[in-house]
TrEMBL record:
InterPro entries: AlkB-like, AlkB-like_sf, ALKBH3, Oxoglu/Fe-dep_dioxygenase_dom
Keywords for this protein: Dioxygenase, DNA damage, DNA repair, Iron, Magnesium, Metal-binding, Oxidoreductase
This protein's name: Alkylated DNA repair protein
Cofactor: Fe(2+)
UniProt KW tRNA-binding keyword: no
One of the GO biological process terms: DNA alkylation repair
Organism: Agaribacter marinus
């Protein structure tokens, strides 16, 4: 049996997009599987080089059609605490808190990043939800991406550009918590049972003043 990092703490997920040994040395992809039970989460801090990540951030910040949507929460209309944009294949629509989001056509840079993620995950994606957290006052409430149109055991590839922010997981049943800082140019991949057993989200913070863009590539069934 090959060596696996942190083997005793949890079972490694078979579908992990990163092989179960850490490669080290110059130029290789540094990655880890998170020590969470009932989940399959892989993280690569340097998925994109700093230069690639800088370019992608500037392009996406300037060219995506960012909007601040309202959602209805306990019967009241409230603005979501971040900007969003939904891109994808022409048939990929998405219900989000009672809001039907029609996908805008892929831009060149989104399409390029999608291909990178597809190669890494060995999966196809037909849409991406882009989130722009303007500063530490913007956030994402705890949720699971468990909508029926994502299918069972969805693979979600989450690319971070810009400010590093703390990302929190909370187990739905035993309330266990796990958190990590998502770095500029990093890729977090959630697979397997992750959405069934865990919620994830991002709190507000006074310590961050810079913007962060997050792209979550998904496959949406019609
Ligand atoms: O911004 C993030 O890192 C998370 C985004 C997310 O959870 C989502 O779009 O569903
Ligand atoms: Fe999510």
């Amino acid at each position: 049996m090959s060596f696996k990092i942190g083997q005793s703490a949890f079972d490694f997920c078979e579908e992990s997009v990163f092989p179960p040994v850490r490669l080290s040395g110059d130029g290789s992809l540094n990655f880890q599987q998170l020590p969470m039970t009932d989940a399959c989460v892989s993280y690569a801090p340097n998925f994109l080089s700093v230069d690639e990540a800088n370019i992608a951030f500037e392009e996406l910040a300037a060219t995506l059609e960012w909007r601040q949507d309202n959602i209805v929460l306990f019967g009241k209309k409230v603005k979501i605490p971040r900007l969003q944009a939904w891109y994808g294949d022409s048939n990929a629509s998405y219900m989000y808190s009672g809001l039907l989001m029609q996908a805008m056509p892929w831009t060149e840079s989104l399409d390029r990043l999608k291909s990178r993620c597809e190669k890494q995950c060995n999966k196809q994606f037909n849409s991406v939800l882009a989130n722009l957290y303007r500063n530490g006052a913007d956030s994402m409430g705890m949720h699971a991406d468990d909508e029926p149109e994502l299918g069972t055991k969805p693979t979600i590839a989450s690319l971070t550009l810009g400010a590093a922010r703390n990302f929190i997981f909370k187990h739905k049943l035993n309330k266990q918590k796990y958190s990590l800082v998502l770095e500029h140019g990093s890729l977090l991949v959630m697979q397997g049972n992750t959405q069934q057993y865990w919620q994830h989200g991002m709190n507000k913070t006074k310590r961050v003043n810079n913007p962060r863009i997050n792209l979550t590539f998904r496959y949406v069934y019609q």
